[in-house]
Design brief:
Number of strands of chain B: 12
Strand order of the largest sheet of chain B: 1-12-3-4-5-2
Structural class of chain B: alpha+beta
Distance between the termini of chain B: 32 Å
CATH topology of chain A: Arp2/3 complex 21 kDa subunit ARPC3
Order of helices and strands of chain A: HHHHHHHH
Distance between the termini of chain A: 18 Å
CATH class of chain A: Mainly Alpha
CATH class of the largest domain in chain B: Mainly Beta
Helix content of chain A: over 70%
Largest sheet of chain B: 6 strands, antiparallel
Oligomer: heterodimer
Strand content of chain B: 15-25%
């Protein structure tokens, strides 16, 4: 049992680390606003597929890592990610039997909620970002979700 | 929250709800602690050391590519570069000949006026790291941190002019906020006639604006803007930009002035961190500054502190003075 858990944790940590690095890879400024929140998608995947292995602890610490590496107020991404991962974990049984399209739509709702919490904390701490392009990332995230989840499930099952 | 209650396997869902609430409260607590009080600085610094390998790993392929490109550049290109650089150096040395004399004269004149505001004293050079921080804010990560004596609020220049100021310091890196960030304001004066005002960022790295000039102000396209030295953050007399366009609408009381920054905000790779000269003091009437500017106390305190060996802990207390929205 213990060993089983540990085997599952390795791909989880690995995918989270890669996604964290990709969150700060330099992109041309046109593409920068379109950058999907990969780490968030990875956390959603593990919340849905194996909530026992990581769950909210993974979500919280992934959020802290994002806060540190992006240099924003500590706890902002952690709060957003924890709440949305809890929602995803709650809906996981339904999500697993959804069609690809409805899965993507649900993920879009999660990502929008995530952005909204970030937006709210930004405003509450006095650094409002009111540009509309910040709402593009959820769209891109929902579009790449099917590809990401199939890639991750291949990694997961190996 | 209500939705969590009516679930099938109630034990698990309660646990989920409990952990969700716990972690959310923890995150909220962190936000409040980090924003309101200064207690998290040390923790942040430790965490940032842990994040440093990730940043270096992200940067290394780009660094490697640059290195590769440089090492395979042809002899002809190197020779051309060399000729160009020598020509530039000659020109710079020619300009420098008069610099010493001019500086002495400036100091004497400033002494007469009892004003030695912000003459820079010491530099270190930092490299911008190839790491994207946030798509919506004009900030860059630089590879010099508290270990090198960098402090919050320090002025940062590039070869062309004023680049920005240090917004946050970690042990090995620091975050510089560009003068083009919408939350950044810098006290400037027009070189031609000494008119003082504030230049505010727009979020566009090729444009600043001067929102506080009346329509009747004496400003024309092509005027050079230099730092005024008020506020105690930026040394006086460094170029900030040139006036690109002045729009005067008779119905409005304020003119609409666009400025083209002198620093190449989106192309520079090397930055200069500046320390102000010891004993540099502010002129007595800093209240002429605009709403966005610093409170005079912290500005004045920052200048003498910056002189000798800027202990990282000390100046870090002073908030980045001109980032108005940060303080708010």
């Amino acid at each position: 049992m213990m060993r089983d858990d540990r085997i599952r944790r390795l791909p989880m940590m690995l995918s989270a680390l890669v996604a964290l690095a990709l969150a700060v890879v330099p992109l041309p400024s046109v593409l920068d606003a379109l950058r999907p929140d990969l780490l968030v998608l990875v956390v959603f995947y593990w919340s849905i597929e194996s909530p026992r292995a990581g769950g909210l602890t993974l979500a919280f610490f992934a959020g802290i890592a994002l806060d540190v590496i992006k240099g924003v107020v500590l706890g902002q991404h952690a709060l957003a990610l924890t709440l949305m991962a809890a929602w995803a974990t709650y809906l996981r049984l339904r999500l697993r039997v959804f069609s690809v399209l409805s899965q993507s739509l649900t993920i879009f709702a999660f990502l929008t909620g995530y952005q909204f919490i970030l937006f709210w904390v930004d405003g509450a701490t006095g650094n409002p970002v009111t540009s509309f392009s910040r709402w593009l990332a959820p769209v891109v995230g929902a579009v790449i979700w099917p590809f990401l989840s199939s890639a991750l499930s291949r990694l997961h099952e190996r | 929250m209500v939705a969590f209650r009516n679930s099938d396997s109630s034990g698990r869902t309660t646990g989920l709800l409990l952990r969700c609430v716990l972690y959310s409260l923890l995150a909220l607590g962190l936000i409040i602690l980090d924003k309101r009080y200064d207690h998290l600085g040390r923790i942040r610094r430790l965490l940032s050391i842990a994040a440093y390998p990730v940043q270096v790993a992200v940067e290394s392929p780009f660094e490697g590519w640059n290195w590769f490109r440089q090492s395979v550049s042809s002899r002809g290109a190197l020779r051309a570069d060399n000729v160009r650089l020598q020509a530039e150096l000659r020109l710079a040395q020619f300009r420098l000949q008069r610099y010493e004399a001019l500086e002495a004269e400036t100091q004497r004149l400033r002494g007469l006026r009892d004003n030695t505001a912000g003459v820079s004293n010491r530099f270190i050079v930092g490299d911008i790291m190839d790491v994207d921080l946030d798509a919506f804010r004009a900030r860059v990560l630089v590879d010099k941190g508290a270990g090198d004596g960098v402090f919050v609020g320090q002025a940062v220049l590039d070869a062309g002019g004023v680049f920005g100021q240090v917004a946050r310091v970690e042990q090995l890196t620091s975050e510089v906020i560009l003068i083009s960030d919408p939350t950044h304001a810098i006290p400037v004066q027009i070189n031609r006639n000494g008119l003082r005002t504030i230049a505010v960022g727009t979020g566009d790295s090729s444009r600043l604006k001067l929102p506080y000039l009346p329509t009747s102000a004496d400003v024309i396209a092509g005027d050079l803007l230099v730092t005024s030295g008020l506020g105690g953050i930026f040394p006086a007399g460094y170029p900030v930009g040139t006036i690109a366009e002045v729009k005067r609408d008779p119905a409005q009381s304020l003119a609409d002035v666009d400025v083209r920054p002198a620093a190449s905000l989106d192309r520079s790779r090397e930055l200069l961190f500046v320390w102000l000269k010891p004993g540099a003091v502010l002129p007595a009437a800093p209240s002429a500054k605009a709403p966005a500017a610093a409170n005079p106390a912290s500005g004045a305190a920052a200048a003498p502190r910056a002189d000798a060996q800027p202990a990282p802990a000390n100046p870090a207390k002073a908030p980045p003075a001109q980032t108005g929205a940060n303080d708010e």
